[in-house]
Every structure is written in C-alpha cells, then in structure tokens.
Amino acid sequence: MPIYHKLGRIPHKRHTVFRKENGDLYYEHLMGNKGFTGLSSLLYHVRRPTTILQTRLQKKCNWESESEPVLRMRHFKTHNLSPVGPSVALNRTPLLYNKAVAISFAQPSANDDFFYRNSQGDELIFVSDGEGVLESSFGELPFRKGDYLVIPRSITHRYRFSEGIKRLLIIESVGQIRTPQRYRNEQGQLMENSPFCERDIRKPENLPVNDAMGEFPIMVKKANAIYEVILEHHPFDVVGWDGYYYPWALNIEDFEPITGRIHQPPPVHQTFEGDGFVICSFVPRLFDYHPQSIPVPYQHSNVMSDEVIYYANEEFMSRKGIEEGSITLHPDGLPHGPQPGKIEESIGKSKTGELAVMVDTFQALIVAKGALQVEDRDYSRSWLEDKK
Ligand SMILES: [Fe+2]
Question: Of 2, 147, 150, 200, which cross-links 196 as Cys (Cβ 3.0–4.6 Å)?
Fold first, then answer.
C-alpha cells in the first residue's frame, strides 16, 4: 500500500545494530516485491524467520473446469454452496479462473490453528459476512462485514473469526492488487477525484509479540500446491516494522459513489486494479438527476472482458432473479443489459440500495466444476419477454 506505516520498535537507522535487553540482536527481515524495487517493509524479529524444521506437500490445488465449455449467461448461488471444510485457508470452493485471476468462496466454520501464506498471488477478500481480526507478522487488523482485505503475497497470516455466519469471496491475483492508477498522483497519493482516500484505508494497529518456541505449521501456497512448513518458533515474533508492504482494509461503505445527471459508466465504480482485471464497487447511491434520465445501464457488449458480479444484497437496479450471494458471469461474445421491465421500472426512481462487487477480467474466465452445483440454468433465458 503506498502509505508509509510503522508499528512497534525499530532502530533509528536501517541495517544497523538493534539489540534486545539481554544484548542479543534482533533479526532484520526485508519483505518486498519486484526484486528490491517494489513496495517493501523491514521487520525486526525476536528469532530468525529462517528456522524451518521441515516442509512437506499438503495438497495439490488443481482447479477442474466444467467438462464442456459453455457460452451463455451464467448465474451461481454461492449461499447454496455446501461447505467443503472448516478452514478459510484450505477449504475454498473454486468458482471462476483464468491465468491472471482466480475467484473462490469460503464458508469457514472454525478458526485455523495453523498459519497461512499465499506465495503465488496477492489475495483480496471481500467479507460478505463475518467479523474478526486478521493476524499477521505486521500486527492485528480488525475486519467486519463489507470489508475488502488486501493481503499482498507471502504475508503470513491467520484469521480469528468471531461467532456468526462467515462468507468470504476470495480473489487471488498473479499481479499486484492496487488502487486504480488514475486516482493516484505521481507521488502515489490518492487524488481529490478518487472515490476513497487514505483516511478510509485501515492498517494493522496492534503488534503483539509472540516469543515462543515449538513447532508452528504454516500452510504455504506455491505453484498450485499447499505445503506445510514447520517453523521452530511462533511466526508473529516481530517487535517492530516500517514500510509500505502490509495487509490493509477498505470497507465498501467507505467507497463514495460518483454520480451524474445521466448514467455514469462502470469505471466510476472502480476500486482496485490488478494485472488483467479490475474490481468495482456498486454501492447505495442517488440516481441520475436529468429529468429524462434512464438510471439503469444501456445494453452493452463487454468486448474484451468477462464481467463477474457478486451481489452482496438482494437488490440490483438492472437485474432480476438474483439473490444475496448470487454471482453472475456475462461473458464477452454476448451482449447483455437490463432484463425486460427493468428500464421502465428505473425511470423516475431517485436512488438504489444495491451493494455488489464486480470483477472484470480481460481474458476469458473458465467456470470451475465446483460452481456447477449451484448454477441457475434458467438465468440465460431471463431476458426473454415470456420470463417477465
Ligand atoms: Fe455490464
């Protein structure tokens, strides 16, 4: 995240002597991407982060595609997915993927007693339901319903969920997940035209130091496999850190919608960008104020992108037949738009209460087998007048 942040105790000068009370040295550890030229942080550990007792293959993550490719409008009801296990890290249902981005869904029922890090991609988690604390080497980051959690790759972390329903939309990205370039000035600050600013971005706030020896398993995702890595001490033994590389959060309610006299195009809803995709937030807002405006979008051909929308509530201005937790996929190759009745219905309305997350990918998405169990196969015919 291009905001400098610091927690705990650090030496006055980097790469210099920093001693514990007993005279031993703390262990300095640089974490950063793009080979010492990207965002980075310097962490100071009580013990060496390199004391690995053993590693072993835990499982392969081979995502299976549907057996025959299909070209039609798709609709999947994620809230009907059967939970596949208790763990947020290990038990995720694959839904949609390509070489740049992978979308899955998790409904964890217990807190993991191990740690997790994804060393093949950044993770962006949309917390559709649930709250708790995201623990990491960088400290504690409380989260709640509606949060986007951005966890840059290779950050060791663990979720401590509170009681209640937990539903998470998980987006893994080969490229770095970041704020939209066009909202950042040349120094990286979010500009006045950005729908959110640094004040809305939440950073780790507490840094408990866990100085404990033992066997601490970390599940590491790398090259489409999960490895169990046993560390000789607790991984969250950092006494201080500073830099730009750390997990952060933005709540969808803190995204301020950009509205106009006539319909504004989807890029005004953009919240994040990756390599090969963008993420947009559709939030409650006032509708267009031209007296003759049509608030819902026109029919459109999403040329060169596949359009995925996750509906965080049951309302969406241009759509019918969806429910909270629905995911629609409108693939490139088929024009789409409001279903019959929705255009007339929208005229004269003053506001919408919709809440949805859109992922537009620049390469075609593959539907994973796991999504088929909750597919609404009638969705593609919902544009026909007889389905009104
Ligand atoms: Fe669209």
Answer: 200
Is the pLDDT score of 388 beyond 60? no
DSSP 221-242: EETTEEEEEEEEE-S--EEEEE
- Beta carbons within 8 Å of 72's beta carbon, 6+ residues apart: 334, 380
pLDDT (tens digit, 9 = 90+) per residue, 216-240? 999 999 999 999 999 999 999 999 9
CA 111 to ligand 1 centroid distance, Å? 37
Q: For 104-143, how does the pLDDT look when each residue is reduced to its tens digit (9 = 90+)?
A: 999 999 999 999 999 999 999 999 999 999 999 999 999 9
Q: Return the closest-CA partner of residue 123 out of 184, 84, 174.
A: 174
Ligand 1 centre to CA of 72 (Å) is 14
0.85 exceeded by pTM: yes
- Please tell me the number of Cα atoms within 13 Å of 318 on its side-chain side: 17
For residue 301, how far is its CA from the centre of ligand 1 (angstroms)?
8
pLDDT category at 386 given cuts 50, 70, 90 is: low
CA of 105 relative to ligand 1 center, distance in Å:
22
**Ligand 1 center to 309 CA (angstroms):** 9
Our CA angle for 100, 102, 106, nearest 5°, is 160
Ligand 1 centre distance from Cα of residue 338 (Å)? 9
Q: Rounded to an integer, what is the distance from CA 249 to the centroid of its chain?
A: 10
- Secondary structure element (H or E) that encloses residue 345, with its range: helix 342-346
